Amino acid sequence: MSAASWAPTCSFFALHKKTTDNEFRLIRDSGGHVQATPYIESVMGGVRPPALARMLNAGLKPGLGIDTETAAASDMFHVMRAALTGDGLLHTVGYEGYEDVPRVTASDVLEAATISGAAAAGLDDRTGSITPGKAADLVLLRMDDINLYPVVDPVKAIVAGGHQGNVDTVMVAGNILKWRGELLHPGLRKVQRDAKSHPRPHC
Predict the structure, then answer these.
(1) What backbone torsions phi and psi does residue 201 show, to the nearest 5 degrees?
(2) What distances in angstroms separate CA 82 from CA 21, 35, 160, one per listed residue?
(3) I want to staple 117 with a disulfide (CB 3.0 to 4.6 A). Which of 16, 46, 50, 63 is the partner?
(4) Farthest-apart Cα atoms in the chain, separation
(5) CA 124 – CA 145 distance, rounded (Å)
(6) pLDDT tens sequence across 130-185
(7) For residues 185 and 176, what is the distance between their CA atoms, to the nearest angstrom?
(8) How far apart (Å, rounded) are the C-alpha atoms in residues 55 and 198?
(9) What tens digit of pLDDT does each residue of 65-107 get?
(10) What is the C-alpha to C-alpha distance for residues 66 and 38, in angstroms, rounded to an integer?
């Protein structure tokens, strides 16, 4: 089966419960994109082990996703650590089929969380990297925070040790939405009050 007959160009694939290595190569050859959801793939029943390493080994550039916010922390630091830890465990225990699959690196994970994720969403022409002409979408971390300092390798420090509490500044399209660790949205407190007062369904 050829890539052209298997999937249309620019397709997007997620939740790879039973995706084979050959199918990943077909996605690559068709010009498609994939998203890895390493935490959900690690804990949901019936799902194969996290597929990030196999995607990379097939020549794909996967993005990272959360998938189910009711079952996983909704921040990318959590997802990045799940990707790195899940892959390390698969290689450490010698999981079948991973003997010849290279380990996922911190650089692989950070790329999946940024430019590769933007590409998978069709947004890499405007965001995902610091490039002239792209939107000024930036996340600045305090690298002198006690959980990160001293920084020897910034990429490894962010992926393995960073969390949302380290985020000092967030800029979206040039607009500062978080500054010195404080969210600046004028309606934030009202949203919180509304959420607290909203009746919850009985389970």
Answers:
(1) -70, 145
(2) 21, 14, 9
(3) 63
(4) 55
(5) 30
(6) 999 999 999 999 999 999 999 999 999 999 999 999 999 999 999 999 999 999 98
(7) 9
(8) 42
(9) 988 877 778 899 999 999 999 999 989 998 888 888 999 999 9
(10) 8
